[in-house]
Amino acid sequence: METARDVRTSGLIKFHQQQNACFGETAGWERPLFYSPAGSKPKIDYSFLRQNWHEIVVNEVKTCREAVALLDQSTFAKFELTGRDALHLRQHLYGANLDRPIGQAVYTGMFNSHGMYEADLTVVRTGDDSFYVVTATGQQQRDYDWIARHIGNNQVELADVSANWAVVSVMGPQSPMVLNRITPAAFPIENLRYGSVRNLSLNSIPIRALGISYVGEQGWELHVPADSVHQLTKEIMLAGAEFGIRPIGNYAISAMRIEKGFRAFGHELSSTESPLEAGLGWTIDWDKEFLGKTALKKKRQQPMTQRLVCFALEDPDVTLWGTEPILMGGTIVGYTTSACFGPTIGVSVAMGYVKHPTGAPLQSSDLQSNLFEIVQLGQRYRSKASLKPWV
């Protein structure tokens, strides 16, 4: 859209402008989509074919996969849940067990009574009776409302702190070296444990570092007060200069998450899909009670006739965008939920829910023994299919 812009901006808006970012909008937030080369105009020339930003995004992904990149993810929605019954409410709403040690991040889902997704998010236990919740940019109002409507008589306070905290992520194989240069004590060069949380201070800037990644590379999400994000970013860029650090935009982030098969709400996850069909049954603790468990236990005992599948085209010159028909043996069996050109493997990749044309349960062997095709601009293109991601 060209109107109603610049409504919400992160503390790094001037940094992105100086880096020649091309901006897009989500939920009112201005987000850098990609960074144009110096001297060129940062704009999109729209096309159903390969677009003008293709090579830019390929190089941004390469930087993150092979060296180190800086991601501004400040637009994440963030909530704080506190009070005597905070844990009880968390346990009721989430499929995962939230009764974890203080300072641990957990990826989980919230489900409705039918066992279908209402949200997927990350939760950090910050105290005996307090939690920090991080969810998608576009889910701020929806997720807040879902939690608020289930508080009931629980002694709980829910606060939307999305604007209070900014998020700068440092991702890539060189990220440990960059962060070690900034504060060696807090970030020793070692393999990080997924889900670990570190609280530290850098030049009086309080930082909550989450050892999680939405691009599939090692690194840290650094959650800082919004008014301190610019100073922290300067420190990171200086420390990462010799390692080739550069900012990357949302198009590169999306491409990497699809390559890795990471699900996204509104694409792979919605109120019409269950965690079993989405291949996320591992996120559920079946030994505790939670909203939707009864329905999910019934689904668990039945054969799955629909499953989320990862695809990779054979033709490297075709670009997929999402919602393309998926054919199995010449019959439409589903549509892609997310798709893009995958820079890491050099062909378009996608995810999509597939139902066996006979109505029978879909088996992993069916993906190997059948011809899969994806339709783009009226043409069928052969595709590999797998329950596992390609990267």
List the helices and strands and how they pair.
Elements: H1 13-18, E1 21-26, E2 29-35, H2 54-66, E3 69-72, E4 77-82, H3 86-93, E5 105-111, E6 117-127, E7 130-135, H4 140-148, E8 157-160, E9 165-171, H5 175-182, E10 197-202, E11 205-210, E12 219-225, H6 229-240, E13 246-247, H7 250-259, H8 293-300, E14 306-313, E15 325-328, E16 331-342, E17 347-355, H9 364-369, E18 372-376, E19 379-386
Parallel strand pairs: 3-13
Antiparallel strand pairs: 1-2, 3-9, 4-7, 4-8, 5-6, 6-7, 9-12, 10-11, 11-12, 14-17, 14-19, 15-16, 15-18, 16-17, 18-19
Helix pairs in contact: 2-7, 5-6
Mean pLDDT, as a whole number?
95
The CATH class of the domain at 303-391 is: Mainly Beta
User: Number of DSSP strands?
Assistant: 19
Note the overall shape.
globular
Cα gyration radius (Å): 21 Å
Q: Which topology of the domain at 303-391 does CATH recognise?
A: Elongation Factor Tu (Ef-tu), domain 3
In CATH terms, the superfamily of the domain at 303-391 is Aminomethyltransferase beta-barrel domains
How are strands sequenced across the largest beta sheet? 10-11-12-9-3-13
Helical residue percent?
A: 10-25%
* % residues in beta strands: 25-35%
| CATH architecture classification of the domain at 303-391 | Beta Barrel
Question: What is the count of helical runs?
Answer: 9
Query: What string, H for helix and E for strand, traces the elements in order?
Result: HEEHEEHEEEHEEHEEEHEHHEEEEHEE
